[in-house]
Design a protein that fits this description.
CATH architecture: 6 Propeller
Structural class: mainly beta
CATH superfamily: TolB, C-terminal domain
Shape: globular
Helix content: under 10%
Radius of gyration: 21 Å
Strand content: 25-35%
Distance between the termini: 31 Å
Number of strands: 31
Number of helices: 1
Length: 444
């Protein structure tokens, strides 16, 4: 893997799709929609329903970790006809979540370096006009959010792996003017899932923070202190305990970090958290569990409802029993909320955003985009792309579309692992990938 801490250098390299005319979208349903990277193509539409799921162990569980190689000179994301791709920035140290400030500045979480970087973007420019470290010395920063939402935020919040902090912020700040103020001091720490995303509800009253599970599948969870009956009576439905307490969940606080509650449970790893502008509904881009075979369990992107339970670890995609927890929580079987959009299993769905720009064709406006970081638990690589979540009147149809592909070199090597997606002020879609440390600009 390419590792560098040198400043991000902008490149005005432009890649224009050469596919001519209108494309006829291929629509894949059921088992045909599972597939792997070899069948990915911009415009391919996929629909997976709960009834399409295979049984646990229908295929063997494979450990196949891709190797990140330097980006080949001519390699670039492949996008639908009519779109063009520019290499906006390179040389970043593992860029993960990206957010766009109201003035158009691009905030980048360089998680492993412990810092937030600012890239100043002039509308339509092929490269940043400024590149500064806004803050460093952070502990695994990932999620970034501005508060209050709107054109004149006063704070920039950062979700570390074990806390939420905020910086005084004024539009155009390239560096933090004050030390970080701790808002939430003790998020669950450690374990397998360390990313924390953050979003504010549209009424500005609640701060949502996603916290993934510590383990894969609630291993050795056992019984709760005081017994299951008492625990169920006193806690949110589906809430876990012990080392998984307050995990596999979305937590809720007020903007000052007080009034802590569990918003939703049973979400194994909500890596990307976003609030839909139209409805005000929170959404999660979720990594499901491993070890059940190539095509189980599907990752998903979904609306999340308050006090809803999404199954982990006892059930998955509705009332499907997890065989590792057979018979443990029959009381929850009929209480599982089925996710809206099922994705190819092991895709590792990460960053999530809603397209609110005017550059893309009208049919894209209001749809969601999610970054698929790519599989390790599948015999043939899956993910390594950006997908479009198709909505109708603001409601997910269950379909999703391959939007940006081409990050895979062969069945064992990749040059890019998409993480963050955001809409630039000029309406372009920005995509970060942490394999070679680049950000790409996709416009129409």
């Amino acid at each position: 893997m390419k590792k560098t801490s040198r400043p991000a250098a902008a490149t005005a390299l432009l890649f224009v799709t050469t596919l001519g005319g209108a494309a006829t979208a291929q629509s894949l349903r059921g088992e045909q929609a599972f597939g792997d990277w070899r069948h990915d193509k911009p415009g391919t539409i996929r629909l997976i329903k709960p009834a399409d799921l295979l049984k646990p162990g229908a295929t063997s569980s494979a450990a196949k970790v891709s190797r990140v190689v330097p980006r080949p000179p001519a390699a670039a994301p492949q996008v639908p006809p009519g779109f063009q791709v520019e290499l906006f920035a390179e040389g970043l140290d593992g860029p993960r979540i990206i957010r766009v400030a109201p003035n158009g500045d691009i905030l980048v979480a360089e998680t492993r370096a412990g810092r937030i970087r600012v890239l100043r973007n002039a509308d339509g420019a092929a490269r940043p006009v400024a590149n500064e470290v806004f803050a460093d010395g952070l502990h695994g920063p990932f999620g970034i959010a501005f508060f209050p939402p709107g054109d004149d935020p006063q704070w920039m919040y950062v979700a570390n792996t074990d806390s939420v902090v905020r910086f005084a912020y004024h539009s155009g700040d390239l560096k933090a003017s004050t030390p970080p103020e701790t808002v939430v001091a003790n998020l669950p720490r450690g374990g397998s899932h360390t990313t924390r995303d953050i979003a504010f509800t549209t009424d500005r009253k609640r701060m949502l923070v996603s916290v993934g599970s510590a383990g894969n599948d609630g291993e050795e969870l056992g019984t709760p202190p005081g017994g299951l009956t008492a625990w169920s009576r006193e806690h949110t439905v589906g809430a876990a305990w012990g080392y998984e307490a307050d995990r596999a969940a979305v937590l809720s606080f007020d903007p000052d970090g007080k009034d802590k509650k569990i918003f939703a449970t049973g979400i194994r790893n909500c890596v990307g958290l976003a609030v839909q502008p139209q409805s005000g509904a929170p959404w999660c881009s979720t990594n499901e569990r491993d070890g059940f075979g190539d095509d189980l369990v599907p990752d998903y992107v979904t609306r999340i409802r308050e006090n809803a339970f999404y199954g982990w670890p006892w059930f998955y995609i509705g009332g499907n029993q997890d065989p590792r927890h057979r018979g443990e929580r029959p009381d929850l079987k009929r209480k599982v909320t089925i996710p809206d959009v099922l994705l190819q299993a092991h895709s590792a769905s990460l960053g999530l955003t809603f397209y609110a720009g005017n550059n893309f064709p009208a049919e894209y406006r209001g749809d969601a985009f999610a970054a698929e970081h790519g599989s390790w638990n599948r015999s043939k690589l899956t993910g390594y792309k950006v997908i479009r979540i198709r909505l109708k009147d603001g409601v997910p149809t269950g379909e999703y579309e391959d939007f940006a592909t081409g990050f895979v070199v062969n069945d064992s090597e990749v040059w890019g692992r998409p993480v963050g997606v955001a809409t630039a002020r000029d309406g372009a879609l920005l995509v970060s990938e942490d394999g070679n440390g680049t950000i790409w600009r996709i416009s129409h």
